[in-house]
Design brief:
The protein is of the alpha+beta class and 241 residues long. The protein has 2 domains: 80 residues, Glutaredoxin (3-Layer(aba) Sandwich); 119 residues, Glutathione S-transferase Yfyf (Class Pi), Chain A, domain 2, CATH 1.20.1050.10. Helices cover 51% and strands 6% of the residues. The chain has a 4-stranded mixed sheet, covered by helices on one side. Helix 1 runs parallel beside helix 3 and helix 1 packs across helix 6. The radius of gyration is 18 Å and the shape is globular.
Amino acid sequence: MSYELWYWSDIPGRGEFVRLALEAANIPYRDCAREPQVGSQGLIEDMLRTRQHPPFAPPYLVAEGMTLGQTANILYFLGERHGLAPADLPGRLWVNQLQLTIADIVAEAHDVHHPIAASLYYEDQQTEALRRAAYFRKERMPKYLAYFERALSGGGGWLAGGERWSYVDLSLYHVIFGLLYAFPHRMAMIARDYPQVMALHDRVANLPELQAYLTSPRRLAMGADLFRHYVELDDKPTQQT
C-alpha cells in the first residue's frame, strides 16, 4: 500500500517533516503535487473536495481510508503504524509533545520574516521583521535549543532514548538544518552551547537510511520557505582579534 502525501510542490515546508519519516523508514508514498499534471492547482482542488474529515491546510496524508492533517498528527500515525516511535503510550506521547514543540519553533521562525501577515511580501513588513528577528535570535532560539538539549540529557543520543531514532529526531534535525540556513552567523555563535543537539543533527544527516533521499532531487532546496536567509535578519559575525 502506498500513502498519498499532499504538500506544495516547490518548497520543503512542513511537508518535509513527513517526507523525512517516510523516506527514512522506506515507506512507499506518492508526493502527489510533484507529479506531472498535478502541481499546486491539483493540490488545492484535492484539498477542497468533499471529505468526511477535510484537512485545514497541507500537509495531509491519505492513508488507510483516512485523511490526516497537521504534521504532528501525521507523524503520530506513522510512528505508531511503522515503529517510528516508542511502543508504549507514555513514550508515544513524549515524542508527540516534542513534535508539537518543534511546531512552535517552526512557526516562530516563519514569523521572523512574516511578522504581520503571511499574505504580505517580506519587503512590506521588513521594519517589523528586523525587530522580531532580534528577539528571536537573542531569546527564542536559545530557549528552544536549551530545552531540546535538556531533553537529550537522558543519554543514548536520541530524544526518545533507546538505540534507534524516532520520527522526532528527524524533525529536530530539519529544524537545526533550517536554523543553520536562515541564521548561520547566530548559530555559529551559540551552537557550541548545545553539543547534544548539534550531535543529533550530524547523526541524522549521516543515517544510512536517509542518504539516498538527502542526495536526490526529491530533497527540495531551502528558499522561499519557512526558514529563509536574509542577511539583515542574522547576527553579524564577530571580529577576530
